């Protein structure tokens, strides 16, 4: 059935008369009556009955009404989505392969804002290739072809919890305070473990979070400490990401850490000379 017929079914249940239902749809009464007959032919059963001048739905019509309302809702949702896509133009797909997703998104959005494109950020690996990829990188790249954002690794602790009032890196290691760890397999986790070994200490992993936004929230509640990248010195665009309720403590002997934005395989196959030029002769983002 067409969306007009689904809407007519709902309006007939609302008005109980053909004329006002047809008027609301912008149809003439004979056209609405024709659609009613066609609906009954399509479903092979009576959907409407006339009682004392009113049009009522039969049991079959009432059963179909639930689906009609859901189909109309989905149609309206799809219409709004298409309107958004048309207004935004072609979107850029940016995949974030890093635990500091909020900061990665803020940095990428700030860099790409002059291009005036809508951006679809995702942390998932999908069937389609992304246009751009943000990934962890311990050291700046040695050759051009990507944008690199340098960070400083710091300890994030609660700014108000008394247990962390005078905390330092060495005191947290010595007291075996709970560590809110990044997930296994990430560059940040590897660097955290190497740093603790260099300080002749051991981190006590109490929580593990795939997203540093969650780690910061737990740390702000005083449930432990996290080791997080701080981009504020070099890149103010990411300074405010997840900083509320936290005190950042310098990490002595902190290893190098940053994020790299590089074009994905899909971008090279598109006609995007301005975007590709962004990576032609630069290694650092501003």
What would you note in describing this structure?
It is a single chain. With 286 residues, this protein is an alpha/beta fold. It has two domains: 3-88, Orthogonal Bundle (Arc Repressor Mutant, subunit A), CATH 1.10.10; 90-286, 3-Layer(aba) Sandwich (D-Maltodextrin-Binding Protein, domain 2). Helices cover 40% and strands 22% of the residues. The chain has helices at 3-15, 18-25, 29-43, 59-88, 101-112, 169-174, 187-198, 212-220, 265-268, 273-277, and strands spanning 48-51, 54-57, 92-97, 119-122, 132-137, 147-158, 178-181, 204-208, 226-230, 246-250, 257-263. It is elongated, with a radius of gyration of 29 Å. It starts with a helix and ends in a 9-residue tail after the last helix. The model has no long low-confidence stretch (mean pLDDT 88).
Topology, please?
Elements: H1 3-15, H2 18-25, H3 29-43, E1 48-51, E2 54-57, H4 59-88, E3 92-97, H5 101-112, E4 119-122, E5 132-137, E6 147-158, H6 169-174, E7 178-181, H7 187-198, E8 204-208, H8 212-220, E9 226-230, E10 246-250, E11 257-263, H9 265-268, H10 273-277
Parallel strand pairs: 3-4, 3-5, 7-8
Antiparallel strand pairs: 1-2, 5-11, 6-9, 6-10, 6-11
Keywords: DNA-binding, Transcription, Transcription regulation
GO molecular function: DNA-binding transcription factor activity; transcription cis-regulatory region binding
Family: Belongs to the LysR transcriptional regulatory family.
Describe this protein with a few key phrases.
Arc Repressor Mutant, subunit A, WH_DNA-bd_sf, 286 residues, transcription, 7-stranded mixed β-sheet, 2 domains, DNA-binding, alpha/beta, D-Maltodextrin-Binding Protein, domain 2
């Amino acid at each position: 059935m067409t969306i007009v017929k689904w809407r007519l079914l709902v309006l007939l249940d609302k008005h109980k008369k053909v004329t006002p239902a047809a008027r609301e749809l912008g149809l003439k009464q004979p056209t609405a009556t024709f659609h009613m007959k066609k609906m009954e032919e399509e479903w092979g059963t009576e959907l409407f009955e006339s009682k004392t001048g009113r049009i009522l739905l039969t049991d079959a019509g009432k059963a179909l009404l639930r689906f009609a309302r859901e189909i109309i809702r989905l149609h309206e949702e799809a219409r709004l989505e298409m309107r958004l896509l048309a207004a935004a133009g072609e979107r850029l797909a940016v995949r974030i392969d890093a635990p500091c997703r909020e900061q990665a998104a803020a940095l990428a959005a700030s860099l790409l804002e002059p291009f005036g494109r809508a951006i679809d950020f995702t942390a998932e690996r999908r069937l389609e290739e992304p246009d751009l990829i943000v990934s962890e990188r311990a050291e700046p790249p040695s050759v051009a072809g990507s944008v690199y954002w340098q960070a400083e690794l710091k300890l994030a602790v609660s700014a108000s919890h008394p247990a962390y009032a005078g905390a330092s890196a060495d005191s947290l290691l010595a007291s075996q305070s709970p560590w809110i760890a990044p997930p296994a397999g990430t560059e940040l986790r590897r660097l955290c473990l190497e740093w603790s070994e260099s300080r002749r200490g051991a981190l006590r992993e109490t929580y593990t979070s795939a997203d540093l936004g969650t780690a910061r929230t737990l740390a702000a509640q005083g449930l432990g400490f996290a080791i997080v990248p701080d981009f504020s010195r070099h890149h103010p665009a990411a300074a405010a990401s997840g900083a509320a309720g936290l005190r950042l403590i310098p990490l002595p002997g902190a290893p190098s850490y940053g994020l790299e934005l590089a074009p994905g395989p899909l971008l090279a196959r598109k006609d995007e000379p301005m975007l590709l030029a962004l990576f032609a002769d630069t290694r650092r983002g501003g």
